[in-house]
Amino acid sequence: MTKQQFKNKRRGKSLKEKLVLEKTFIRDLKSYFNSLSKSIKDSNGFISIDNTLEKHYTRIVKKLTDKHPKKAKSDGVVLWKVENQLSGYTLKRIAVQSKLIDDNTKRQIKRAELIASQDTSSTSKSLLTARILKNMSVGRYSNIAITETSQMYEKTRGVIVIVVHEELRNAVLEDDEDYIDELADYGDDYTSFEVADKYKDDEDDDTLYGLLDGATKEWETMGDELVREWHSDADGQEVGVSDFFNVMGELLFEPGDVSMGASAENVCNCRCSAVYL
Q1: pTM of the prediction?
Q2: What's the domain range around 165?
């Protein structure tokens, strides 16, 4: 397999997985906003989206970690390290993103209440507010689903790649051939192209160690008219696996990353991917 074929395969697989996850999340969002509208209609107060987000993030992690081969050692070590690295990030992201979404929803509720207050019919204001809010929310489903799915997906896959590479490096140093063979079964899903390709060539461990140290990742866009200009400029940018991309003067560890303060215009609705080479 050539590097371009690898990129095409990875792009197709990632896109398909993201789309399935997005569709599932849109169903969850519809259910959430329906419950919120009902709560407002019944004057039961506001319901945060935090539980809905947590459910979706958990689904993404499970989707990506469940694909790996079930082996005695890697099954425990890799999964434990991945979940450990993601736990703090996930909790923080739930808090930050749920507040952002909730704040926007509360602003929509105020607008809905204002519109309802101007209605001269005999319909109850709480019922009108609930109906108006429900209609307002429909346009948000896709934006929320794309942003939250893509960013959590990219973060999770990136963590898995780094953990698998670290475990491979340690296995080489310890001359643990059985563990190397287990990790090799992660293949091109969770190792870089060069590292995955090494197994097909059956080269020695010294070569593998060098490939691990030299592994990189490349920013890749969807390549269509919806890609924002500065992401098109970043398309093809290649950095070390543990380094940051520089996009519009901002540092992102993977598409959608906000750990270094990336702005909303750089991450919201982003469909880009990191390809590990």
Answers
A1: 0.88
A2: 3-276
